[in-house]
Design a protein that fits this description.
5-stranded mixed sheet, Coagulation Factor XIII, Chain A, domain 1, about 675 residues
């Protein structure tokens, strides 16, 4: 389908492979230059070309009837219905326009089978059929260079070839020897084109299963000892695409819409029944084997997201639509036999109107869905992390200042940008000169990493820390850790609220001594009745750590840092948060701060696992308008989901006093 008619959105996928531009093509090219077009155009063309390849394959497979006589209308209807409904499919439209790298699988697979069918059918009468067989093998070899599920296609070719050997009593050695050169030509071309990947896998065998081994259904660590039951669940999950539920991924679909609607699914199952009944005929046998083999990459994978996953079953999509076309043809034959046996013209008109109407209606639905709903859906902004484009637009507009650096929390990054790790998305969108770094706080020795990064900036005067305001950007407690360190080793200056995010500025950052979260931890063993314990605490102001045994004097600086050390029970299933509150006799509550407890590996306490110790870093920015007086810093631990607090064993109190803060008027 054509691109939208109004500018909407331009965003880039994290992994650098998939780009989404909901701009008119002319505007996209003019704004982004040739890079955007180069990324998007190949997969768009592959998706469009696959439609024509499906039509061609349908004509070749079904251009003759069961007795071998020419039946051009049969091929036209089956191929036309398959291609027509594929082109107006919401699923295929979204995949094609989001530059999904799985698109070439359909194209090369259909071309390979079509060329093979074309050459095989003419091998006895035309010497020119050799080049068709060779091209078929070449297209099959190209599949190995595409999406990972395409590696199952050799099984499709092998099983389909072996199906001609049954029943064995009807196969002669002479006939097999006559066909052998053609098969050798096919596999020779396949091996030649696939050679770069085959050589790479031979030299690096671990790369062959690099992706699939983390999803393999028969891995005991993934199937929990029930691979067969999990496989049946997968099969049911993928059967739902026929009229019940589709891919929930907004990058591939719209609102979990089924790949086939109810009436399309009815024709598909009719086609499957017809193919199963006539399985002895090669074209029907091919579609059934094709469907079964190319669904295996999906059904043999343990998916961490709701099923189905369209891209994993992309190789089966042409077979699905061709079987749908078979169902429509058989229904039309039944209609002719029952109602139009003597009226060929009326029959053709009715079939044309019904089929054309089905495609037209589906096309209108897809058009309205894609252009008016999908592009504007908030889920799309979340899926494609639109907020990153807003952030980089802000950064690009900043004047060049080599003495300023930006620290950006990003839950997906393991190392700082510009220091060995590259983010394709950020590199593509960020064109500014001011140093900007993405950090994931779960990395080892986080404090020293931040300090060493700051040391690399000459004459550093200002550090800007980004805090996301959006829940769609998952960063755990990363901003809190940035604020903790910068509050301890620098001076907070001001903040700027920019809607999707805030920028907090720190100056006078001390880099002369090694950064440490704390010098020591003071034991404070508190056992809660909910399977969690508070082991120790550290409290300080600036670079100075203060004892919790004595009142802490608060004058001009109102920034206090706190470290809480926890111990979780084995397989703890409760997600805990903490609330820190300042209270006095005159003011029951003058300040509070709530924070989810994140473990070292950036998971919450409710994710289970073995018993574990971890630290929580908390930066308290006590308001300047708190009146002088003595306050208790109290702690409450509660269930994040139910808000129900847990209590200290044998004490049965909700709150625990950590320290006494004495606020005095600044001189």
């Amino acid at each position: 389908m054509a691109p939208p008619s109004s500018p909407k959105l331009l965003i880039a996928k994290n992994n650098g492979r998939e780009w989404l531009g909901i701009y008119p093509i002319a505007l996209t090219v003019s704004l982004m230059g040739r890079t955007e077009l180069a990324v998007r155009l190949p997969t768009i063309l592959a998706g469009v070309s696959a439609i024509f390849a499906v039509f061609w394959l349908g004509r070749l497979l079904f251009g003759k009837d069961e007795s071998g006589r020419d039946s051009p209308w049969r091929g036209l209807v089956i191929g036309g219905v398959a291609a027509g409904l594929l082109v107006v499919s919401t699923n295929h439209t979204v995949l094609g326009r989001t530059a999904n790298t799985a698109q070439p699988v359909m194209l090369f697979l259909c071309l390979s089978l079509a060329l093979f069918q074309w050459g095989w059918g003419r091998r006895a009468s035309s010497r020119g059929s050799w080049w068709r067989i060779v091209l078929a093998g070449a297209c099959a070899g190209l599949l190995l260079h595409t999406y990972v599920p395409a590696r199952f296609t050799p099984f499709l070719y092998i099983l389909f070839s072996l199906s001609f050997l049954w029943p064995v009593r009807l196969v002669s050695w002479g006939s097999m020897r006559a066909e052998l050169p053609w098969l050798l030509a096919f596999w020779g071309a396949y091996g030649l084109v696939a050679a770069p990947m085959l050589i790479h896998f031979a030299l690096n065998p671990e790369h062959l299963f690099l992706r699939s081994k983390s999803l393999w259904l028969f891995d005991p660590s993934l199937n929990q000892g029930e691979p067969f039951w999990l496989y049946l669940q997968n099969v049911w999950g993928y059967l739902k695409i026929f009229g019940i539920r589709g891919d929930p991924d907004w990058r591939s679909n719209f609102a979990s819409r089924p790949m086939l609607n109810v009436w399309e699914a009815a024709f598909f199952w009719l086609g499957v029944c017809v193919a199963a009944r006539r399985w002895r005929l090669p074209q029907f046998r091919l579609l059934l084997i094709w469907l079964g083999v190319m669904l295996l990459p999906a059904t043999l994978a343990v998916d961490h997201f709701p099923l189905p996953n369209t891209t994993r079953m992309i190789g089966a999509v042409p077979a699905i639509y061709l079987l749908l076309g078979v169902g429509v043809w058989e229904a039309a034959k039944f209609l002719k036999k029952g109602f139009f046996s003597r009226h060929d013209t009326g029959y053709a008109i009715v079939v044309g109107v019904v089929v054309g109407g089905m495609i037209l209606v589906q096309g209108v639905v897809t058009y309205l869905t894609y252009f008016q709903k999908w592009a504007d859906a908030p889920e799309i902004r979340s899926e494609y992390e639109f907020e990153w484009s807003i952030l980089t637009k802000y950064l690009n507009a900043q004047p060049h200042n080599p003495e300023t650096a930006f620290l950006i929390p990003d839950g997906q990054r393991q190392q700082p940008l510009k220091a060995g790790f590259r983010s394709h998305t950020f590199d593509y969108l960020y064109q500014g000169e001011t140093p900007a770094y993405l950090f994931h706080t779960a990395m080892p020795d986080f404090a020293n990493r931040i300090q060493s990064t700051m040391l690399a900036v000459d004459d550093l005067s200002t550090v800007n820390v980004v805090e996301w305001n959006l829940k769609s950007v998952w960063t755990g407690d990363e901003y809190e850790r940035f604020a903790f360190l910068l509050g301890k080793y620098g001076h907070y200056r001001d903040s700027e609220d920019l809607g999707s995010f805030r920028v907090h500025r720190y100056t006078d950052v001390s880099l002369s001594t090694p950064w440490k979260p704390y010098e020591f931890l003071e034991p404070l063993h508190v056992v809660y009745d909910g399977g969690i314990e508070l082991l120790a605490v550290a409290l300080g102001r600036g670079q100075d750590q203060l004892s919790i045994e004595e009142p802490i004097l608060i004058r001009k600086s109102r920034n206090i840092w706190t470290v809480l050390q926890w111990q979780t029970a084995h397989d703890l299933g409760i997600e805990y948060s903490v609330s820190l509150r300042l209270r006095s006799a005159e003011s029951p509550e003058v300040y509070l701060k709530d924070l989810v407890l994140w473990k070292t590996d950036h998971t919450v306490t409710g994710d289970g696992g073995p018993a574990e110790q971890f630290d929580t870093w908390i930066h308290l920015d006590i308001p300047a308008d708190i009146p002088p007086g003595e306050y208790e810093l109290r702690l409450i631990v509660y269930d994040t989901k139910t808000l129900k607090p847990t209590v200290e064993m044998e004490v049965w109190e909700l709150e625990r006093t950590l320290a006494i803060l004495r606020v005095v008027a600044a001189p």
